[in-house]
Specification:
Layout lengths: L13 H18 L1 H16 L4 H16 L3 H10 L18 E6 L4 E7 H9 L4 H21 L1
Antiparallel strand pairs: 1-2
């Protein structure tokens, strides 16, 4: 006959133990928050300069491929095809000074062109809805026509 050790019944369920652990960690963080902030700031300052140009470019390429399905080089090519001008207002734009933004169709996930920030935000504000854009155009025309009649 083997000797079995009798285990004491558990006082807490697994979920209760997890909850208590979370509470303990939260309480510790609150009482030592300033130490966490100082430690994280030192770590950030130490590593900030270590991010190489190669890493920055690789993350930029990954972002473009993920978000737009094209590489930054292809985006530059599209801008060159537009002669460095916004596809809507024809203002001079550039990726290097961050005035150029890649415009894409949210439903088809296709790049439409490269826009300046103002035109890009304008299209976004109208939610790419042609009917609403025509409504805005008519509103502006009506105002100009009314203004000419009173003059």
């Amino acid at each position: 006959m083997s000797k079995r050790r009798m285990m004491a019944p558990r006082r807490f369920t697994e979920e209760q133990l997890k909850t208590k652990e979370r509470e303990r960690h939260a309480e510790y963080y609150i009482t030592h928050k300033h130490e966490f902030i100082i430690r994280n700031r030192k770590q950030y300052d130490k590593n900030r300069g270590l991010m190489s140009e190669k890493y920055r470019n690789s993350t930029r390429i990954s972002k473009y491929l993920y978000k737009y399905g094209i590489t930054p080089t292809e985006a530059e090519s599209i801008l060159n095809d537009q002669n460095g001008l916004c596809a809507i207002c024809n203002n001079l734009i550039s990726f290097s000074n961050k005035t150029a933004h890649t415009d894409h169709d949210h439903t088809l996930n296709e790049v439409r062109g490269i826009l300046c920030s103002t035109c890009n935000m304008g299209l976004g504000s109208f939610k790419d809805d042609i009917t609403t854009l025509f409504g805005a155009i008519n509103y502006l025309r009506d105002f100009r026509n009314r203004d000419k009649k009173t003059a």
